[in-house]
Amino acid sequence: MNFEDIGSGRLAASMFINGQWLDAGKHQTIDVENPANEQIIATIPEGTPDDADQALNAAKQAQVAWARQPAIERGKMVLALARAVIAHKDEYARLITLEQGKPLNQAYGEVGAVENFLRYAAENARRIEGDIIPSDNPNEEIHIRRVPRGVVVGLTAWNYPAALVARKLGPALVAGNAFVLLAHENTPLSGLFLARLADQVGLPKGLFNVVTGRGAVIGQAMVEHPITNLVTMTGSTLAGKKIFAAGAEELKVLHLELGGKAPFIVMEDADIDKAVDAAVIARYTNCGQICTCNERMYLHRAIADEFTEKFIAKSAALSIGDPMLNPDMGPKVSGLEVQKLDEMLQAGIDAGAEVLLKGGSLNDGQYEKGHWYAPTVLEVKDNQSPLIQNEVFGPIAPILRIDDFEQAIAMANDSKFGLSAYLFTKDISRLMRLPQDLKFGEIYFNRANGEQVQGFHSGWGHSGLGGEDGKYGFDGYLHKQTVYLSWD
Ligand code: NAD
To answer: What would the mean pLDDT of 115-142 be, rounded to a whole number?
Structure first.
């Protein structure tokens, strides 16, 4: 498939199954839009359960020989893919910006993350270790082996259409699995581009297949399919619950990386300028579309006025525009997402939130075409406000004043989500106490968001099951198998 002309015309994209590019043929198609100007840049086939079946069968067949290769050989292939990603970084970054809307410099950052995820996965090839445990019987050992799961299905969100794929693909392949990706219908091209690179570096056919279409149709068919051994999904809590239910009949192993509602706590002793800078980055990067974003700020009363004034000034100063020109913020990914934000904002105002910086959706002049949203800051009095309880996933920032640390912890925990959280303070006892008392999987002290490949990214509660990255994330792509080895 040819990505070179993208942006200047309409690319008729194909699915990639068993090493073959399969065009739409008799399939319906779905338009892929550039969110900055609403131009249709591509069409994708609307995949069916039959396509899912074909891709899963190809994966099943390819996986047997792949799993028998020494892990280091699998790692070398994934390393070659990481190198190809960097060799094509300009093309890749531009593609991400075209279909997703993030500023080009952030898209380059995403390409860097793709490389990092793949490299880290390749490094794990020599670390697939088991255990030998003494038996209670004479002449017997107990071996615990770590073996591939088999066929892994990847379902990913549109906010990081390249990095989220690499985060799953790299460890899945190095662990000896085959992979079938459903490329999100909003942003399918980044996943297809990675498949092309994988094909070019010689990854055997059938190991990385990419289907396109709608989650509720082809995605669900893959979750329910008997060939699927593991479903690793990153996306909304709502879809995660549907996948959980769909996987129940066949008792699928599920990794679900879901929504977040990160509390951002700033205490009276914090470095205010540092906290404000981090709050801006953590709220507005990628137009506020990150699961770890600063979604609700709890400010100690003693510093709330100063913080709020500085935060509003920085929010209002952010540039918004053509993502190819590296503004602070590009567009939201779709018109539907803008509509969702408008509705959430109104619900928050109806519930008593006071608007401090009126941003909202932008529709005039240079913003007539595209899906634009300006930073919006509100003061909220009640922790039950919908702006505090529901994931916003856009540049709307609610502030709530708190009296003390105990109240901040109680309010932060009063949420169904449990992904990431922030605390700004210089008090070591508060820093030590927070992880004890906070029911969240990832905590940032005195810094903005941005996880690293060797960490462990995991949501608690409605934020998910499973977890990605590091040795624990890698382990999720392996089964444990116990062998009782007896001899005389
Ligand atoms: P989404 O839930 O709509 O889609 C995610 C994936 O699931 C897509 O591939 C989609 O096609 C598929 N899907 C949807 N319904 C399905 C079904 N019934 N059966 C099978 N597959 C189905 O998510 P989105 O709107 O693309 O992403 C935004 C969400 O992702 C936000 O809530 C964000 O917080 C979350 N997210 C979480 C993380 C994390 O690591 N925890 C990272 C990025 C994004």
So the answer is: 98
pLDDT in tens, 219-253: 999 999 999 999 999 999 999 999 999 999 999 99
Ligand 1 pocket check for 11: Cβ under 6 Å: no
**Pocket flag, ligand 1, residue 260 (CB < 6 Å):** yes
Q: How many CA atoms lie within 13 A of 468 on its CB side?
A: 30
pLDDT digits (tens, 9 = 90+) for 159-175: 999 999 999 999 999 99
464: pLDDT strictly greater than 90? yes
Q: Is 312 helix (H, G, I), strand (E, B) or coil?
A: helix
- Between the CA of 160 and the centroid of ligand 1 the distance, in Å, is 11
Give the other-Cβ count within 10 Å of 458's Cβ.
24
CA-to-CA separations, 386 to 282, 348, 373, in angstroms, rounded: 20, 6, 19
Residues linked to residue 482 through DSSP beta bridges, in sequence order: 144
Contact by Cβ (8 Å): 76, 202: no
How many CB atoms neighbour CB 465 within 10 A?
Answer: 17
What are φ and ψ of residue 136, in 5° steps?
Answer: -80, -10
Are 146 and 250 in contact by the 8 Å Cβ rule? The answer is: no
Confirm if 311 and 373 have CB atoms less than 8 A apart. no
Q: What is residue 170's three-state secondary structure?
A: helix
Q: CA 331, CA 368: separation in Å to the nearest integer?
A: 12
pLDDT digits (tens, 9 = 90+) for 208-218: 999 999 999 99
Give 440-473 as a DSSP string.
Answer: -SEEEESS-----TTS-B--EETTEES-BSHHHH
Among residues 185, 257, 391, 442, the one annotated as catalytic is 257
Does the annotation count 257 as an active-site position?
Answer: yes
From 155, 164, 371, give the residue whose CB has the most ligand 1 atoms within 8 Å, as the site to mutate: 155
Protein residue with its CA nearest to atom 34 in ligand 1: 259
Ligand 1 neighbourhood includes 159 CB (under 6 angstroms): yes
Query: What per-residue confidence (pLDDT) applies to 246?
Result: 97
Report the nearest-CA residue for atom 14 of ligand 1: 215
